[in-house]
Design brief:
It is a single chain. This protein is of the alpha+beta class and 118 residues long. Helix content is 45%, strand content 21%.
Length: 118
C-alpha cells in the first residue's frame, strides 16, 4: 500500500500553481484523460516525495528533470528507489526532451503506461 503524506498537500498545491513550462506542456497533453483515457494527477505526494505526474491506475510516475549534477542526481536515485519499492514504475525525461520533442515524450509515456508491470 502506498503511503500518502498529508503534510505535503500544501507544498504540492504550490508546485502545481508554479509549474515549469515543460511541466505545463505535458500537463496540457495528459490532463482530463487526454492521453488514451488515462487519468494523471500533477504534483502528487507519495510518501515523503512529490512526483511531477502520476497515473495511479497504472502505477506510473513521470518526472521532468532539469540540468542536475552530483547531489541532486543522488537524491533522484533515492527517490526513484523509494517509488519503485512502493510498486511504481518511474520514467524520467529531461526538460529539453519535452521542449523539443513533446510528441515523442508523450508516446513514451503512453507505451510505459501500457506495458505490463514487472
Amino acid at each position: 500500500m502506498t503511503v500518502r503524506n498529508r503534510a505535503l498537500r500544501g507544498p504540492a498545491r504550490l508546485l502545481r500553481l508554479n509549474g515549469t513550462e515543460t511541466e505545463d506542456l505535458i500537463w496540457f497533453a495528459v490532463r482530463n484523460r487526454r492521453l488514451g483515457g488515462l487519468r494523471f494527477v500533477r504534483q502528487f505526494p507519495i510518501g515523503p516525495y512529490i512526483v511531477d505526474f502520476c497515473c495511479r491506475q497504472r502505477k506510473l510516475v513521470v518526472e521532468i528533470d532539469g540540468g542536475q549534477h552530483g547531489e541532486l542526481r543522488l537524491r533522484d536515485d533515492a527517490r526513484t528507489a523509494y517509488l519503485e519499492l512502493q510498486g511504481y514504475r518511474v520514467i524520467r525525461f529531461w526538460n529539453h526532451e519535452v521542449a523539443v520533442s513533446t510528441s515523442t515524450v508523450l508516446e513514451e509515456i503512453w507505451k510505459s503506461a501500457n506495458e505490463s508491470t514487472p
